[in-house]
Model the fold of this input.
Amino acid sequence: MPRKRVYRSKKKLGQIPGSVIYTGERSKEKLFIDVFDYTKEFCTEKELQTVQESFKYKDTDSVTWINLNGLNHVTQIEALGEHYDLHPLVLEDIVNIAQRPKIDEHDDYLFVVLKMLYYDANEKIVSEQVSFVLGKNYVLSFQESEGDVFDSVRNRIRQAKGRVRTLQTDYLLYVLIDAIVDHYFSVIEILGDKIEDFETAIFSGDVDDDISQKIQNLKREILRVRRAIFPLREVISRIEKNENKLILKKTITYYRDIYDHLIQVSENIDIYREMIWSLMDMYMTTISNKMNEVMKVLTIMASIFIPLTFIAGIYGMNFEYIPELQYKYSYFILWGIMIVLFIGMLYYFRKKKWL
Done:
């Protein structure tokens, strides 16, 4: 019985544009908000209990990163959006997790949506939507649940490593996006290892009965990764080419580096996609070859026994006047002829390399 499909789009049908409706399935996630507020000289890290505690960071002279986990808490997100003057359509896109990676430019901020990819403990690929709002002195990030790929960024801020503490929010947005893109390489490496394992198993003949289903699942993973990564190239390209007051010229070079990484990942995805299709063809060819080997053996056996069956059929007929039946050594001669035919045909097949 096919499983019942759940369509996220049904939650949005008939709703007023700008309605903040969470379309995901993690409705029991706890609200978690952490804040990094820093300059070159100091860094403050806090865990907030409510979004109201983050309001004071809007107009400070320091750089602030506010990370909110729990898109199911739409009331808190609406309150945060109201204080930071976010457009209702932006809030709608934040909680609608089916968004395609994109960038929207507004008067005082940039809104960026992209997908964070990683493998869970069961080696299943997870695609989580992450939204960023880049303001003059703050970056807001919104995640569906706790757990991300930003630990390296947090450590760099805490320990003042690199340039993150000396530059503005546009560089902070860069390092956050760069952390996500760098993790794409880990995902691609795992996909490559899976494909190589399948190739080795198919060539060696050590395959499970459900190998075709596993290949189909791997193909779906490739397509899911492709849908998450390919549109992001357009997003980074727009940041690189547009002249926005929030993105300084000296930071454009860093975004160009992200674009180069995305091109490299995209090329690998295309290669792996072709390899996945060839894996299925390779598996079907292997199955066909095995069937041909079986049919060849059966055909050779049938070819050997056809003349023997013909001889046995003739002398098995119930006629009284078959001359050879009266001869004393007819039985042994007949067996000799049949054995010679058997050995001769085996020699012939082996000489033709059919055996």
